[in-house]
Amino acid sequence: MESSVIEQFHQSIEAKMAAGETLAPLIAKASTKIVEQLVQDHQVLCCGNGLSSALAKIFTQSLLLQYKLERPGFPAICLSNDCSLITAISHYHSVSEIFSRQVKTLGRPGDVLVIFSLGTNPSNLVQAIHTAHDRDMSVIGFTGAGDKDLSALLSGDDIEIRVDHDDRHRISEVHLLSIFCLCELIDQQLFGGTA
């Protein structure tokens, strides 16, 4: 059993090492994009399904409260948080609209939509991207190898932080580390240092 645990650690390290050099410039670019929009009084909207919902919550919390530095909070909203709202939209409209309806209501031109997906091309994220573009918002997509539909929608000012792996757990681990790197860079750019 212990060897199985060690093997999981090795697989996690290998996935992160394989992604690091490819993702570093994209994470840096995403941090600059978010900082530019925050200083112009825009907000960040985040969403994802299942495990990716938890990643969206972690990123939102890190922006709204703090990452390492004690600092003023940044305007960030997690669209995956409100269960009663999500079930109401699903009931009265459709599951594919649970994020797009919120983006349409809360999103403003210049805001940033950050989506998280583990390679499953969810229709609700497809609709959210369409709505964000209609609202003149840019999109940062944390995606996996199977997210071809989501990737095809990203263009222009959008940034894709894509983990080319098929195991959703490895993808989520790389996404989590990427979130931490992103938060570190945002704090450095706005406050000139680390905790």
Summarize the structure in words.
Residues 34-195 form the SIS domain. The chain has one domain (2-191): 3-Layer(aba) Sandwich (Rossmann fold), CATH 3.40.50. By secondary structure, it is an alpha/beta fold. Helix content is 57%, strand content 13%. It has 7 helices and 5 strands. It has helices at residues 2-39, 51-64, 83-92, 100-106, 123-134, 148-153, 168-191, and strands spanning 44-48, 76-78, 112-116, 138-144, 159-163.
* Relative helix content: 55-70%
Number of helices: 7
**DSSP E strands, number:** 5
| CATH-defined fold name | Rossmann fold
User: What is the count of distinct domains?
Assistant: 1
Structural class: alpha/beta
CATH class call: Alpha Beta
From N to C, what is the helix and strand string? Answer: HEHEHHEHEHEH
Rg over alpha carbons: 16 Å
Kindly report how far apart the N and C termini lie: 38 Å
Poorly predicted spans: none
- Rounded mean pLDDT is 95
CATH superfamily: Glucose-6-phosphate isomerase like protein, domain 1
Overall outline: globular
Looking at the overall shape, the CATH architecture is: 3-Layer(aba) Sandwich
Major pleated sheet? 5 strands, parallel
Strand content: 5-15%
